[in-house]
Specification:
Elements lengths: L10 H10 L6 H11 L4 E4 L6 H13 L13 E4 L3 H14 L7 E4 L6 H9 L3 E4 L1 H10 L9 E4 L2 H6 L3 H10 L5 E6 L4 H10 L4 E4 L13 E7 L5 H12 L4 E4 L3 H13 L4 E4 L5 H13 L4 E4 L1 H4 L9 E4 L6 H8 L9 E7 L4 H11 L4 E2 L5 H22 L6 H10 L2 H15 L44 E6 L9 H11 L10 E3 L4 E6 L3 H9 L10 E3 L6
Parallel strand pairs: 1-6, 1-7, 2-4, 2-5, 3-4, 5-6, 8-13, 8-14, 9-11, 9-12, 10-11, 12-13
Antiparallel strand pairs: 15-17, 15-18, 16-17
Helix pairs in contact: 2-3, 3-4, 6-8, 14-15
The chain binds adenosine monophosphate (AMP).
């Protein structure tokens, strides 16, 4: 088992990881960090949720850390290309967190926002730029982003970038970066055009393929497996909502980091659960006590990291909850192996963010079992369940027949009110006293990314007028938007994709066909997002202009 300490990382980086509560490297980190520190190029197949960001960011930070040697040239030393604005911010934040002690300056650079602030920041000097390809190219042509000093170039989610029409931009950028740089390419899938890109721009790369799918017969236990797709912000509420519904007798809630274990434990206790934390920062004695309490039923929930739960064997366990999708499918199998033993029914519940949907698929392939995506119980579901509980308690109370003392109260009230009204008021009081219904809002179901056939190479249908068919079959009704700028204004499909994904909650894969005509362009988007996209695009500029944006009228068809 590799530890972070085995990986030859600088103490500043190791301290950052400890501070973040990472207990051990994920498989992709264990495999990638060594070769990257040794200066190798790398071609890695890994999806979101595997820990790939740290896998490339830590060696990047180590390589460019100030160690007395002068930087090789002007401009940033690291460039990370990512498909979307959201990812640019996320990766940039991660690099900043890991490199805090080293004082590394990181700047996210993406389209759809005014360029001036980015220009100023670049002028002041940065060490790492995390950029979407279109905006990166924009800065390169303005001279504000210089590629000559780059030591490391990283392509993150390369398949996604190609899907979004950034192939040409990426080629241009890679051609402009110095020959002796290190190049790293991560992609969730490896279609042939990614292999071709790697062949052209990577030198003798180490190849890492994460999802080694070699399911051993009978390895996966029989467990009811469900998943909920929710955004990060809604996870704590979704967890308690689902636990309220499931009412586990004994459960382990798995988290990725110590910090998360602590947070979730506090959340659960705050909501009336008896939950105890178990992670590497807790001493052995306390740890044994927690395990004992879980076994004896004094504790119903233990919140744990994988490392801390290793070897934990509790026969009475009914539920395994994955507060995060585990970084490797094998870890999932290991986690849920703790329930469903000896013929008892076990339940595995996984909370996944929309981006982690692919990890669920990888797990399904490994276990050869289906994970059912379910809706988080709604407020109405929960209310109905609580009412049912109140009804059951009232029924019990009537059957117990110890209501003598109450008789005078009811008789007194019955002289004044209808007996039915008296009963209603009493039930309401009992119900209200049984639990809070405050702060309950429905938890939005986050849409999983639309499935698509990623492994088939597809020539870009984008940008060709007349190709009226949806580019990637959006499910459900769509609408076309009219954008009053086209080829004459040098608008390219990727400019529109960049503006839409940058300004609205839509991801690249939710955008359908794009047609660029001379004086206008047409973009297909899901009908129910059309107004949102129109409003968002009106706030921004496209190729420095503010073109007219509206729903398409029939005459453009
Ligand atoms: P990524 O796949 O890079 O998007 O990372 C997914 C999540 O895992 C992020 O929230 C990281 O902070 C977290 N993470 C990455 N590496 C580790 C690790 N070794 N231990 C715990 N959490 C990690």
């Amino acid at each position: 088992m590799t530890t972070f300490a085995d990986l030859d990382l600088r103490p500043e980086l190791l301290r950052a990881l400890t501070g973040l509560g990472y207990e051990e490297p994920t498989p992709i980190q264990a495999e990638a960090i060594g070769p990257l520190l040794a200066g190798r190029d790398l071609l890695g197949q890994a999806a979101t949720g595997t820990g790939k960001t740290a896998a490339f960011a830590l060696p990047l930070l180590q390589r460019i850390a100030p160690d007395g040697s002068a930087p090789t040239g002007r401009g940033p030393r690291g460039l990370v290309l990512v498909p979307t604005r959201e990812l640019a911010m996320q990766v940039s934040e991660a690099i900043h967190k890991y490199g805090r002690e080293l004082g590394t300056r990181v700047l996210p650079v993406y389209g759809g926002t005014p360029i001036v602030r980015q220009l100023k920041a670049l002028q002041r000097g940065v060490d790492v730029v995390v950029a979407t390809p279109g905006r990166a190219l924009d800065h390169i042509s303005r001279g504000s982003l210089v590629l000559g000093g780059l030591d490391v170039v990283i392509l993150d989610e390369a398949d996604e970038m190609l899907d979004m029409g950034f192939a040409e931009d990426i080629e241009t950028i890679l051609d402009g970066a110095g020959e002796d740089r290190q190049t790293v390419l991560f992609s969730a899938t490896m279609p042939s055009r990614i292999a071709a890109l790697a062949k052209r721009h990577l030198t003798d790369p180490v190849k890492i393929e994460l999802a080694r799918e070699k399911p051993a017969e009978g390895e996966a236990p029989k467990v009811r497996q469900t998943a909920y797709i929710v955004n990060r912000a809604h996870k704590p509420a979704a967890l308690t909502r689902v636990l309220d519904h499931e009412e586990p007798t004994a459960a382990i809630v798995f988290c990725r980091t110590r910090a998360e274990v602590d947070e979730v434990t506090v959340t659960l206790n705050g909501r009336g659960y008896r939950a105890e934390a178990l992670h590497g920062g807790i001493d052995q004695e306390q740890r044994s006590r927690v395990v004992e309490r879980l076994k004896s039923g004094a504790t119903e929930l233990v919140v744990a990291t994988d490392v801390a739960a290793r070897g934990l064997d509790v026969d009475t366990l009914t539920h395994v909850v994955n507060y995060d999708v585990p970084a490797a499918p094998e870890a999932y199998v290991h986690r849920i192996g703790r329930v469903g033993r000896a013929g008892r029914e076990g339940v595995a519940i996984t909370f996944a963010q929309p981006r982690e949907h692919r990890m669920l698929k990888a797990i399904e392939r490994l276990t050869r079992q289906k994970i059912a995506i379910e809706q988080v119980p709604t407020v109405a579901d929960l209310k109905a369940r609580r009412l049912e509980l109140t009804r059951a308690s009232l029924r019990e109370s009537i059957l117990e027949d110890d209501l003598g003392q109450m008789r005078t109260v009811v008789e007194g009230l019955a002289e004044e009110f209808d007996l039915m009204d008296v009963a209603l008021a009493a039930v309401k009081l009992a119900h209200d006293a049984s639990g809070s219904t405050a702060d309950e809002e429905d938890i939005p179901q986050a849409a999983p990314p639309k499935p698509r056939d990623r492994d088939r190479d597809r020539g870009s249908a984008r940008g060709k007028p007349g190709g009226g068919k949806p580019h990637r079959g959006l499910d459900g009704p769509t609408t076309r938007l009219f954008v009053g700028a086209g080829r004459a204004a040098h608008v390219r499909p990727q400019d529109l994709v960049g503006a839409i994904t940058g300004e609205s909650p839509l991801s690249g894969r939710e955008i359908g066909s794009i047609q660029i005509h001379d004086r206008f362009s047409l973009v297909e988007v899901p009908e129910d997002s059309a107004d949102l996209v129109v409003t968002a695009l009106r706030r921004t500029t496209i190729k420095g202009r503010k073109p007219q944006i509206r729903r398409e009228t029939a005459r453009h068809r």
